[in-house]
UniProtKB/TrEMBL annotation:
Gene3D superfamilies: Glycoside hydrolase/deacetylase (3.20.20.370). Pfam families: Polysacc_deac_1 (PF01522). The lineage of its organism: Bacteria, Pseudomonadati, Pseudomonadota, Gammaproteobacteria, Alteromonadales. This is Polysaccharide deacetylase. The keyword Signal applies. It is found in: Secreted. GO terms for biological process: carbohydrate metabolic process. InterPro entries: Glyco_hydro/deAcase_b/a-brl, NODB_dom, Polysacch_Deacetylase. GO terms for cellular component: extracellular region. PROSITE patterns: NODB. The keyword Membrane does not apply. One of its GO terms (molecular function) is hydrolase activity, acting on carbon-nitrogen (but not peptide) bonds. It comes from Alteromonas sediminis. It comes from the Bacteria. Residues 1-29 form the signal peptide.
């Protein structure tokens, strides 16, 4: 620290006050939420002839990567997860890049751009589809990409809806059945690539409390498809990732999401995202940070604001409509006091089965 000498007592006191303020602000900056939080992006297709809802054109993908190169630090997924778990500071404005499903257009259209920018990334694949379906990578291509730094991880063996229930199937029988899809995929990955971490991305982002508990008990980290930042307070059975394709590929809105901070949630309800009751659903969560400007919290359902209530450090928001069958979610954001123009972000997914116990695509 540099000290200033002042001959006049008043000036000296003033400068000392400024020094205290400066040091206080520096202390805040040295322990910012920005360094304990990262953001995950999820892509599927990088092409123009694939389903629009899960696709981004190569030109738009390059635009995303160019922006990221200028403003962010891209971390390997494993490095980000390990540092967050150990409480090691991350670079300011960091993020991780992931893909689901293992399509060949990732190799053809995304991989060259990612190599050009020097970005690490992860692909979650379904081993039963690799080298079988024409649009999928082959195992030879997978191994070549791995040699070039790509991490491959578990997306279950065949991309089924894990929450689908068979007639009269008990919870225990269901969990045993779907877990075999996870184990078979992991075993195949470990045979085909040199390293396969115990990371699991849920097909369609669907999971429930029983499956999440199993994921953690078996030593996995789970990845879902709802949005938000990732921090030590996140649920490591279902880490969020921001969808970055289709209607979510717009750079203007994606920029805000890339800069988001993980909402420091210490408790929330409902505990189980799979719901049997579709009416009068209320999300409630409690935070533990004074940096979240809760007076300006906003919650959204299907892109529209919904009423929220604040009680001390707890936010409650009621879904105004009956939840549809399939997937839906509530997103809540609040500005950061310390990081101007950046928002804390929390997302709660909801999953509702059809009457026959299955889920729509």
């Amino acid at each position: 620290m540099n000290y200033l000498w002042c001959s006049k007592p008043i000036m000296k006191s003033f400068l000392c006050f400024i020094g205290v303020v400066f040091c206080f602000n520096q202390a805040l900056a040295n322990s910012t939420p920005d360094q304990s939080s990262t953001v995950g992006l999820i892509y599927h297709h990088v092409a123009t002839d694939t389903p629009p809802s899960t696709s981004v054109s190569p030109e738009t993908f390059r635009e995303h990567m160019a922006y990221i190169k200028k403003h962010f630090t891209v971390l390997p997924l494993q490095e980000a997860i390990n540092k967050i778990k150990k409480g090691i500071a991350l670079p300011p404005q960091s993020l991780v890049i992931t893909f689901d499903d293992g399509y060949r257009n990732i190799l053809e259209n995304a991989h060259p751009i990612l190599k050009e920018y020097g970005f690490s990334y992860t692909i979650f694949i379904n081993p039963d589809r690799i080298g079988v379906e024409p649009a999928q990578l082959t195992w030879e291509e997978v191994r070549q990409m791995e040699r070039e730094g790509v991490l491959f991880a578990n997306h279950t063996i065949g991309h089924l809806h894990l929450l689908d229930k068979q007639p009269k199937e008990t919870d225990s029988a269901w969990l045993d059945r779907v877990w075999r899809h996870v184990e078979q995929a992991q075993e195949t990955l470990e045979q085909q690539v040199s390293y396969a971490p115990k990371y699991l991305a849920y097909p369609f982002g669907e999971y429930n409390a029983l499956l999440a508990e199993k994921v953690l008990n078996e030593g996995y980290v789970g990845f879902a498809q709802h949005s938000g930042g990732i921090s030590a307070l996140s649920d490591f059975a279902a880490l969020p990732r921001f969808p970055s394709a289709g209607i979510y590929a717009n750079m203007r809105s994606l920029e805000t999401k890339m800069k988001s901070l993980a909402m420091p949630v210490v408790a929330s309800t409902p505990i189980d995202p799979e719901l049997s009751e579709r009416h009068n659903v209320t999300l409630s969560f409690t935070i533990n940070s004074q940096d979240v400007r809760l007076s300006q919290v906003q919650c959204f359902y299907r892109g529209k604001p919904i009423d929220s209530r604040i009680d001390a450090l707890t936010v409650s928001a009621r879904v105004p409509d009956t939840l549809p069958e399939g997937r839906s979610r509530v997103n809540c954001t609040a500005p950061s006091n310390l990081h101007k123009g950046r928002f804390y972000w929390y997302s709660q997914p909801f999953f509702v089965a059809r009457e026959d116990g299955t889920y729509p695509d």
